[in-house]
Amino acid sequence: MTQTQAEAEVVLRLDRITKAFGPVRANDAISLSLRRGEVVALLGENGAGKTTLMNILFGHYVADQGSVEVFGQSLPPGAPRAALAAGVGMVHQHFTLAGNLTVLDNITLGTEGLWARGVGRSAAKAKVGTLSRDFGLAVDTEARVGRLSVGERQRVEILKALYRDARILILDEPTAVLTPQEAEALFATLRKATARGLSVIFISHKLHEVLAIADRCVVLRHGRVVGEVDTHGTDKAKLASLMVGGELSLPSAEVRAPGPVLMQFQGVSTPDRGAVPGLKGVTLELRAGQITGLAGVSGNGQAALADLIAGLALPASGHLMLRTKAVADWSPRKALSEGVGRIPEDRHHTGSIADFDLTENAVLEAYRTPRFSRRGWMDWRAARSFAEQIIAGYDVRCPGPDTRIRLLSGGNMQKLILGRAMAPGPEIILANQPVRGLDVGAIAYVQSQLIAARDRGAAVLLISEDLDEIMGLSDVLHVLSQGRLSPAFARGSISAAELGLWMAGQGFGDARHAA
Amino acid sequence: MRLEPIADPSMARKLGFPALAIAATMAVATLLALVAGADPFATLGQIATGALGSKLAILETLNRATPLIFTGLAVAVAFRAKLWNIGAEAQLYAGAIMAVVLGTGALGSPLVLPISALAAMLAGALVLLGPVLLKTRLGVDEVVTTLLLNFIMLLFVSYLLEGPMKDPMGMGWPKSPALIPEARLPRIVDGLRLHWGFGLALIVAAAVWVIQTRTTLGFEIRAVGQNPEAARFAGMPVNAVLVKTALLSGGLAGLAGWSEVAGLKGNLSLDLSPGFGYSGIIVAMLALLHPLGVVLAALFVAGIFVGSDAMSRAAGVPTYIADMLLATALLFMVLAILMTRVRVVRG
């Protein structure tokens, strides 16, 4: 396979692409080539320049220097239509579909003239039908996109690109929202596509996926290409060290005896939020000295469960027990004073205030405690030294406590939020997607802090979509699907495939599960 | 053409674009004068002399700036929390009413000034309390409620001046009786027509600045304005903060009316405010919502008004030029604020 590819024609060539945003060089002389029938993975931590590079290729940005060549023809800069016409198709991480239109309408949208609507509909339908058979992309063309699952929507996006005769597919973090089974189906589609001569650029954080699907892997760091490896001759550890530029060890967690129950859900239900299901009779125990993992695809009730722990909501029915008492008067401030540390899912919009500096963000939760204010007067000196403590103690890389937090990378932002949550020594810790979008170095750091908190006796609830993370860190784990909670599985007692089935809703059967 | 956000704008950018906005405003003023058939440079010169050319002109400008500082602060405080208080005009009149109610003999003690000031703040605060409770409880848009309250309040004042508050000695004019001397704000310097309302406005501006930067309430107001979701998650009582912001904002606007009645006019009439509440929005925006910037912006806006009056008498150019100038200044300033944060990129 590798032999034939080495001789296959080059379909895409990026030549010394350079793009600066102010003083930051997002792309620094990046060269990349893609051959016919090849899958190249683009790997790199957040802010390494992957998305910028793809936006230049697709014509959303204009490069300061360098050129893009598709099938031997150089592509005019800043013209997405030219990229489309040349056969480049992009599937964004956040889908660009109209929920109120049918699948077929979404696919043909923009390809037909203003006055020609409806003329070629049957022809279009036939073409989509052929494509979906050839590439294994089963989807009902007459269904409304708003009613489709995330996996189906992604198939529509890919069909959209194929319908426009894309010969080069760019997939930006395509598996971030998929169950393992859906990801496997996507990989099967990609294999069919490459067999038919399509070429794929696959952007991902997940090393095992890169190894599974890509032929070659290009690693970016700080806007430069730092390595290009044949995936058949490498492993996870090598890729990870290329990404962060140093050997690192992923944290390993040992089994320990669990302590008393610190927080408990007893038959908790919450109302549905539009299409997102609320909790359905969830019973869950969080024990001291234990990391409880909550697996599941986003949008299955995780937000409702996290809000309950964070103090943002109370159960509509059932009880939320704190140690031995049911909570009645519950708010974020109350949760904080009861020793609940919270790492929110969205660090940009929920966990921090973008235009506030690090000092202000550091005291966002504790500004009313006597340490930082007296009789309504802020003690900014104490706040600043607290921020400096977090910066030093949690390795937050920044110019100083007066920096606005929006200027920090996701990893450093998360470290500040982590430091803020850990400072009061919380007994119960809610970690909602704590490492999503972080680079490998930051992931290892955040995870080791969660393990350290568990080791000193905290009850940690880890919500994650990443099965590697959940299975690696959790002492006990549950799956949340459509608001229903699976039974508890002890570490090592369940495989990823079995978890995938629970995530897809099988296993719950007809009877509602009770702990 | 596309806008690209700038992560950390330079100081040159932060000051350069607002300066450019003022220059562009001057260019528009020149055009307006040409349209009116006057010599543009003479017109601009007359506006400048009219505002600053003599001791009298300067004092007039400072007097005019006084209510604008109060309403500008009221708007700046509210907008900082993204509470869109368009009703400073109504709150101003509420304060003015209290100045008359307590200042026309009902209260004879030497404490009448501080008491009526507090009452005016309370009245202004209460006028904004309704809209903010409707917002926090029922999600009613405060832009609509505060704006419409302006008209309701003006009709209410009209009713008062024709009825219960009508001056029996007023020869039929709709105005209130005059305040007793103890209820009047003294002049800062004897013989100069500048009252202590101006001094108080400066002190209040400094106090608002201290509240915003040094107190937990100021921290909460800024946090709620920047990102209510993060504020709520962090444990801030978002609705309570909005109510406190409204009380502060309404109170400041109430002081504007109180200071006009007690300091300048000595009674209440329907022409007490030529739209000070609305001009306060311009002042606050020009000041980029900074309390000390409000003082400078109020002086600028007052200078344009006073200068245009003088210029109009001398050159025969309509005083509408003042409104046009302020409107263009505001538009250019909004654009300048945007341009400090983004750059235009081709392609």
Rg calculated over all Cα atoms of chain B = 21 Å
Order of helices and strands of chain B: EHHHHHHHHHHHHHE
* CATH level-four homologous superfamily name of the largest domain in chain A: P-loop containing nucleotide triphosphate hydrolases
Span between termini of chain A: 50 Å
Residue share in β-strands of chain B: under 5%
Helix content of chain B: over 70%
CATH first level of the largest domain in chain A: which class? Alpha Beta
Structural class of chain B: mainly alpha
Helix content of chain A: 25-40%
Strand order of the largest sheet of chain B: 1-2
Q: Give the CATH topology of the largest domain in chain A.
A: Rossmann fold
* C-alpha end-to-end distance of chain B: 5 Å
Spatial extent as radius of gyration of chain A: 25 Å
Mean of the pLDDT scores of chain A? 85
Q: Topology, please?
A:
The complex is a heterodimer of chains A (515) and B (347).
Chain A: H1 2-7, E1 10-21, E2 24-35, E3 39-44, H2 50-57, E4 65-70, E5 73-74, H3 80-85, E6 88-91, H4 103-108, H5 121-134, H6 150-163, E7 168-172, H7 180-195, E8 199-204, H8 207-213, E9 216-221, E10 224-230, H9 236-244, E11 261-269, E12 282-287, E13 290-295, H10 302-310, E14 317-322, E15 325-326, H11 332-337, E16 340-343, H12 358-362, E17 373-374, E18 377-378, H13 380-393, H14 410-422, E19 428-432, H15 440-455, E20 459-463, H16 467-473, E21 476-481, E22 484-485, E23 489-490, H17 496-503
Chain B: E1 2-5, H1 11-35, H2 40-52, H3 55-80, H4 88-103, H5 112-138, H6 142-162, H7 196-214, H8 216-226, H9 228-233, H10 238-265, H11 276-286, H12 291-315, H13 320-341, E2 342-345
Helix pairs in contact in B: 1-2, 1-13, 2-3, 2-12, 3-7, 3-10, 3-11, 3-12, 4-5, 4-6, 4-10, 4-11, 5-6, 5-10, 7-8, 7-12, 8-10, 11-12, 12-13
What is shown here, in short?
With 515 residues, chain A is an alpha/beta fold. Chain A has 17 helices and 23 strands.
